[in-house]
Specification:
By secondary structure, the protein is of the alpha+beta class. It is 36% helix and 18% strand. It has 2 helices and 3 strands. It has a 3-stranded antiparallel beta sheet, with helices on one face.
């Protein structure tokens, strides 16, 4: 089975590996609620989509750790919640 924490194959079936990668993506999403996180199998990478205003709205990385590191870097550089310009109603 795939060890989602390190993204290393430990000999499980492809279905087990996919399930482990999706589980890692779900955990990243829970750990970082300001992002939507998915596993993109065709590209063999995790992707994160920011739910807040930032220049880097989409991130990609081959491992959960690398993606988490990038997400944290962007979160620290982004304005705190409530300080961004409000959306105008049309």
């Amino acid at each position: 089975m795939n060890d989602a924490a390190t993204n290393t194959d430990t000999g499980g079936t492809p279905a087990d590996d996919e399930a482990a990668r999706w589980q890692a993506a779900r955990q990243l999403g829970r750990d970082h609620p300001r992002w939507v996180v998915i596993w993109l199998a065709r590209a063999s990478e995790y992707r994160a989509y920011a739910l807040f205003r930032t220049r880097a709205t989409v991130l990609a990385a081959p491992t959960p750790q690398e993606l988490a590191s990038e997400m944290e870097r962007i979160e620290q550089a982004a304005p705190a919640r409530g300080t961004a310009r409000p959306h105008l109603k049309r």
